[in-house]
Automatic annotation (TrEMBL):
It comes from Aegilops tauschii subsp. strangulata (Goatgrass). Keywords: ATP-binding, Glycolysis, Kinase, Nucleotide-binding, Transferase. It holds the Pfam family Hexokinase_2. Belongs to the hexokinase family. This is Phosphotransferase. One of its GO terms (cellular component) is cytosol. GO terms for molecular function: ATP binding; D-glucose binding; fructokinase activity; glucokinase activity.
Amino acid sequence: MTGTSQELFDFIAAALAKFVASEGEDFHLLEGRQRELGFTFSFPVKQSSIASGTLIKWTKGFSIDETVGADVVAELSSALDRQGLDMKVTALVNDTIGTLAGGRYDDNDVVAAVILGTGTNAAYVERANAIPKWHGLLPKSGDMVINMEWGNFRSSHLPLTEFDQALDAESLNPGEQIYEKLISGMYLGEIVRRVLLKMTEEASLFGDDIPPKLKIPFILRTPHMSMMHHDTSPDLRTVGAKLKDVLGIQGTSLKTRRLVVDVCDIVAKRGARLAAAGIHGVLKKLGRDIPGSDKHRTVIAMDGGLYEHYTIFSETLENTLREMLGEEVSSSVVIKLANDGSGIGAALLAAAHSQYLEAEV
C-alpha cells in the first residue's frame, strides 16, 4: 500500500498467475486467444476510454506517489508481461460502476449502486443531457453512468466533531474524503478509539493509567467494533474479551463495557444515517423521492463488507432511508445486497468489450 508502483502491480500480476495456474482441466482457451480481464480499480481515475485511465489520487490508506498520473492499465499490463501472462485488460472498471453493471444485468430496475466497505462510493444512471461537463455526441441510449466519488463530498452541513477533525488532520490525505471518513469501514473503529482515549484521559474510563495500546492509531478496527456492538450476553463478555485482546485492557466492569457499547452505537448510527442521507440525495436527483401514482420499483445495488456484516449499521441505514422518504415512497425502494457485485460487473463489462465479439457473431 505504500511501496513502489512496480511492487503493487507485480503483486496483482502474481496473484493472477496463481489463479490461472489453479484453473481446472475443463477450461481451455481457443487456440491463439488471449485471456481477457476486467480490472476493478476502486480509486478515483480520469478515464479516457473503456480500457485506460490515469490515477487522480489514492484513497483508503494507499500512498504510492509515482502511480498518481500514470495509466493504471498500462502499469498492470507491464506487470502481466513481466509474469509471462498472455492477458489483456478489456475493461477498466471502478468497483461502484461494476456493482451498478452487475446489478442492472440482474435486475433492470437498478438505478444506483453504493459501496459501503473499507471505503465508500456511489454511482447512478443519469440522463446525458443533464450533465453540464459532457462534451461531444450524446450516447445512443441518452443515458450516462455517473461515478460520483461521493467519498470526497464535504460541506459545512456535515457535522464534524473534534475527533473527525483530528483523524482527518493526521490521515494520509488531510482535507480529502471527508464523507468517507465519517461513514466507511476503514474509519469507524478509529473514531471509537479516539473517543475512548479522550474518555480515558479526562474521566479515567479504564482506571488511572492510560492503556498504551489505546494510543495506537487504527488498532481498533471496525470488525472489532461491530463484534462489541452486537454483543447480547448479559455480562457483555465479547466486549470484555475484545478490550483485553485488542487494547490490552483487563478486568473492565459491566458499567464500563456498557459505555463502550454506547460509543460504538453513536458512531455506527451516525455513519449509517449520513450514508442514508447520501442515498436519499441520489434518489432525489433522479426524482424517485416523490409520492405519486408511479409505483415503479427503485432498486439500489449495495456491495461492501460494512453493509453486509455490520447488521446494526445496515438496519439503521434502511430505517433512516424509510424515515426520509416516507412510507409511500419507501415501499417501492429496495436495497439489494450484490455480493461481490463489483467483480461480477467487471467480468460482464470485460466480456461486453471482448476483442473476439465479432468473431462469434
